[in-house]
Amino acid sequence: MPNEFLKSELLAPVPLHAQVRERIRERILDGSYAIHAQLPPESTLCALFGVSRITVRQALGDLHKEGLIFKVPGKGTFVAKPKAFQELTQLEGFAQAMARLGHSIRNVVAGHSAVPASAAVAQQLGIATGTHVSEIRRIRCLNGEPLSVECTYLPLHIGERLRSADLAQRDIFLILENDYGIQLGHADLRIDAVAADAALAEALRVAEGSAILRIERLTHSVAADGSAVPLDFEYLYFRGDAFQYRLRINKD
Where is each HTH gntR-type domain found (predicted)? Predict the structure, then answer.
């Protein structure tokens, strides 16, 4: 005779392994299974949910693929530290997005200087190669741990104004909009993966060669006539083990 779990769930046309997966997920997200805590053995989960070992293994396999759990050979299955994430449905600063989710953000300004624009930066900003631009390098720390390295290129006159801004605490986007009255429009993004070189590895406290999520983002301002003007070009390097971008797309 099915237990109470099965009694309540057999009415729903959802595979058993998916039901078990969601129950375990709920316990992870509500803290019942704490970060780095060991999950109960498969036999215990089978008894808890009244399902077969195959069903439990399917559920755990799904959670492992999502990064919610990890396995240590010979020791068992443990709860992984959840990744921070940012939605790609709107243009906003990183700190703004993380603060809304309850995270603490601190920025370490690693450099702020005038440099000749490389061919790649010049092409993005629509200027001649070698034209001086402001380069701002920051290490973004999430809840006290380094999460990303951000390299921003801006027209020199804007970058010089930012020298007096509190870049350790505030998003550049918010300063541009709220303090300088610059209307931001759209951004074009390119996302790929790279291996951490020595400098990135040291800044992010990861092993050299670790997978790093790289984003190239070109943000445009809106001119008086409504046209888009390249304003802010960035290279963003995120720890692949601690961060993800999320996006919902519709069929039509």
Answer: 14-82
48-85 pLDDT, tens digit per residue, is 999 999 999 999 988 887 667 888 888 888 887 666 55
Q: Two tokens at 224? A: 């008086």
Determine the Cα–Cα distance for residues 71 and 77; give it in Å rounded to an integer.
Answer: 4
Q: Which tens digits make up the pLDDT trace of 144-186?
A: 778 889 999 999 999 999 999 999 888 888 899 889 999 999 9
Separation CA 111–CA 116 (nearest Å)? 15
Q: What share of the chain is helix, strand, coil (3-state, %, to 5)?
A: 30, 35, 35
* Structural domain boundaries in the chain: 4-79, 84-246
In degrees and rounded to multiples of 5, residue 83 shows phi and psi of -80, 140
Report the distance separating Cα 60 and Cα 249, nearest Å: 27
Please state whether the predicted TM-score (pTM) of the whole model is above 0.70: no
User: In sequence order, what are the residues at sequence separation of 6 or more whose Cβ sits closer than 8 angstroms to the Cβ of residue 55?
Assistant: 16, 17, 20, 46, 49
Strand-pairing partners, residue 129, are: none
* Helix, strand, or coil (residue 193): strand
Class of domain 84-246: alpha beta
Cα-based angle 247, 248, 252 (whole degrees, multiple of 5): 135
Residue 108: half-sphere exposure toward Cβ, Cα within 13 Å:
13
Task: Measure the CA–CA gap between 230 and 155, rounded to whole angstroms.
Answer: 9
Query: Please, what CATH class does the domain formed by 4-79 belong to?
Result: mainly alpha
User: What is the distance between the alpha carbons of residues 99 and 73, in angstroms, rounded to a whole number?
Assistant: 36
**86: nearest Cα among 206, 226, 181, 215:** 215
Q: How far apart are CA 112 and CA 110, in angstroms?
A: 7
Measure the N-to-C terminal CA separation of the chain; round to a whole number of Å. Answer: 46
